Amino acid sequence: MQVDYSDLKQGALEARTRAAQFEKQWMIWLTLASAGGLVLMLSLLTGMAHPNHTLLALLPAYFAFLVGMAAAGLSFATKSEEEMAQSSHSASAFNREEYRAAADALPTIIASPRRLADEANREKDAIAAKCNAAHDLAEKSWKVRVRWLWLTRILLATSVIAFVFGVAWPALFVFFGGDLVGGS
Predict the structure, then answer these.
(1) Which letter does DSSP use for residue 71 in this model?
(2) Of 1, 50, 107, 155, which one is least surrounded by beta carbons within 10 A?
(3) Alpha helix locations (H) across the chain?
């Protein structure tokens, strides 16, 4: 009995596509939110009586928003590298299975002396070598993909932390007795 898994495969593909879209939206949002925070801090600065004092007081927030923008922006590049490694892995895994099926389709010749068997099995051995090479490339591509995935996650976490710090800094600064207006 042959089980049809096409609906399951289609559902998994659609879920992966939706997840990738949400991740891309998240990366765009983080980039724009950090840029917006920076613009907001700069516009706040221009309305103050002593902008130099305010600039120095809010410098950590400016820096945090810049780090957040840079980290979110870099996450686009690392996500692209991750997807390329995933594509390489998928292609290599597909090729591996094709080579394996082709090698399995050929009979294994057993003969005496051994050199006759080696000559008769040369084509099958060559296909098996290609299968092993495709397997090695698939494994290497998967490891590379995981590294890019982790780097993307680290960059996104950095962006989130920087954004939260940038938003929280002015309130914490004032809460703990800092003076944004500067005066005398």
Answers:
(1) H
(2) 1
(3) 6-46, 51-105, 114-120, 122-175
Report pLDDT digits (tens) over 140-164: 999 999 999 999 999 999 999 999 9
Cis omega (within 30 of 0) for bond into 170: no
**d(C-alpha 75, C-alpha 71), whole Å:** 6
Those residues whose C-beta lies under 8 Å from the C-beta of residue 163, and which sit 6 or more positions away, are 30, 33, 34, 37, 64, 65, 68
* Distance between start and end Cα atoms, the chain: 87
Does residue 104 contact residue 62 with C-beta atoms inside 8 Å? no
Domain ranges of the chain: 6-175
Residue 155 near residue 73, CB atoms below 8 Å: no
